[in-house]
Amino acid sequence: MMDAALICALMIVFGIVMYVILDGFDLGIGILFPWAPADESRNLMMSSIAPVWDGNETWLIYGGGILFAAFPKAFAVLLPALYIPIMVMLFALIFRGVAFEFRMKAKQSRWIWDTSFTVGSMLAAFAQGLIVGAVIHGFKVVDGRYAGGSFDWLTSFGITCGFAMILAYAFLGAAWLVMKTGGATRDWARSITRPLAVAMAGFLASISMKTPLEYHWIAERWFSLPNFVYLSPIPLATVALFVGLFRGLRLGRDRRPFYCAVGIFLLGFVGLAVSLWPYFVLPAMTFWQAAAPASSLNFVLVLVAISLPITVGYTAFVYKIFRGKVKPEHSYY
Amino acid sequence: MLDPAVLDAALLSRLQFAFTVSFHIVWPSLTIGLCLFLFILETLWLKTADTVYLKLYKFFVKIFALAFGMGVVTGIPLAWQFGTNFSELSRIAGSVLGPLMGVEVMTAFFLEAAFIGVMLFGWDRVSPRLHYLATFLVMLGTHNSAFWVVSANSWLHTPAGVEMIDGVMVVKDWWAVIFNPSFPYRVTHMLLASYLSATVMVAGVCAWYLIKRQHVEIARKGFSLALWLLLFLAPLQVLVGDNHGLQVLRDQPRKIAAMEGVWHTERQAPLLLFAVPDKDHERNEHEVKVPGLASLILTHHLDGEIKGLTEWPRADRPPVAPVFFSFRVMVGLGLAFIALGVTGLGLRRGGRLYQARPLLWLACLLTPAGFVATIAGWWVAEIGRQPYLIDGILRTADAVSPVPAAAVASSLAAYLVVYGLMLIAFFYYCHHLVQRGPLPLPGETPAEQHAEGEWLAVAGHASLYTPDSKGAQ
Questions:
Q1: Residue A317's Cα: distance from chain center in Å?
Q2: Which of A157, B70, B89, B333 has minimal CB crowding within 10 Å?
């Protein structure tokens, strides 16, 4: 029997996946920005995401909003606990967000916005990694309120996750550029996608091995029978996608690397969800315990059931309008 | 004043929220109003095929895009602060406020975010009709956003439709929550404030061109359109504000007492044009007043009773001075807008509208005034609700997160610096946009342009395809 809290939890998971993939590639572009071969490439990179970045970032508010609406108890614990990384992430998103508008209008001062874009993108990715690390690590909760310190999120595992996130988004961004740009920019993107993919595979493998060693419940979840058998398609499919990605790069199929990269992200995320299920706040709160009263859950369910398909529909429509490789003359309005 | 015991996490969190929300409110009100203006322009362009409207659209859409970007980046931190800084509010009332914010995200943010891309970058990718639809959808999005966020905010002023069970709010009637008693007044008031702010800004920019005798054809159209709008919007706002006042007197009499500086319950209360409220002695200094007028305005009877602040214990009174003065700033500017609209109407006969220098200068001077009035209005509403966060139910001091003061102080300092820099950058680029003026349309000879404007227009286009400073060196 599916209950309202479960569906709401899945809706949040959907939102986070959308966010990580969509904002992932445009954060990735910010991370790769300084290494672009020429300023024309930077204009092109910016143009490839300018019409969509804002919608991409909205999935972050969607995730936060549904969490606030359907699981206020988890919201009230997680946000104070993650005060510093969340504030850092928000400031970083401000820095990169303003760069889109200001950079286009700037001439001599363009370097300020280029820096703001790159530093903002990197910091946002790093802070998100810290948050993922902290969520896996768990929180100290007493009487439904956060009872830990302000720096509990600062662990070596969290920092590893932070760097992994920067790398992962750079990888996704590079694959996006292979698909969306042409000429020298595309060639450059193609040349960096391969090493980034190798590094990404290395990080994924090491985090996948480290977490079961450090957190016993994750080891039990994955390595007990019959879970091990049921879950084995996840790592196997990940390997297959990496193979597909390298083949796509070699054959010059410009869209394939991006789709494979998205698949790898999806599976990485499924892996994380499997490890944490059914907790929102480890080890204190499952999503059932964190759920809002039925009147609010039902409200959210009706809302999402009506609006999510419409939203996904017109978002896809807008992506369709801006499909294909981006050209230099599209960089201004 | 800077006693460390007082500057605790609660106060810092309030300061941070007050600052970030005051800064943020400027951008949505600009985008709500400007988007309506852009929609009108595109309608006129499609109807008349007069390219002046298109040029005006393409000029103001740049300011719109800047403001929209500012609105997005300053709006995201607000939603999260409910959790980071007011986690007790989230725990207790998250199941009421969260779903309302959720609707805002689903019906407003996504819609705006998706179609602003088409609005800005879609000119050569979609048909004019689809572009027009995109403008409409973005406008719809901005209005949805105002509807839901003002609904959530109004619920904090006049909570309804809920029951307290085990220390948390449970919604019994969503209709009562959404359409809580103050909501219809406040959402209308806010939308009109946004229209006014944008209209006054447009009038100011066009007046500047008319004074400088640049882009005259375009500026005349814009100025005329703005003053027509102002003529209707400004008096309408007075009407709505008056009705809102009746409702506040009914539902939040403490706030009215602070707004009017009434310390002791009285009939035939005078309207204070100016005074300095003294909270320690519970009276006003330096009063300049009109007898009986406050009672007449607020109750629509000369003999109406207005409750004084002394009816409530000191701990339950809002800070009087900021509410009292903000209210006067808001009303004073509202009257200035009416004056601008009416004078403009008078000068239309004989076509003196575009030459009347004092009027043009007044319009110029008032360019940012709509935003000042809007912020002042929000201060009246929000400070007037103190010391409660949910009026009569949850005190602000009891709503804060278990976060140390040092962490909040650091984030507050960071907000001050970052938002300050952003504002400077915004003014800098707006100044450049206004200096450059409306660009000729593709394929159009810039002959009608002012010589300097022409040069800047070419430079503006060329800059896109030349290396930046790093490349040039």
A1: 22
A2: A157
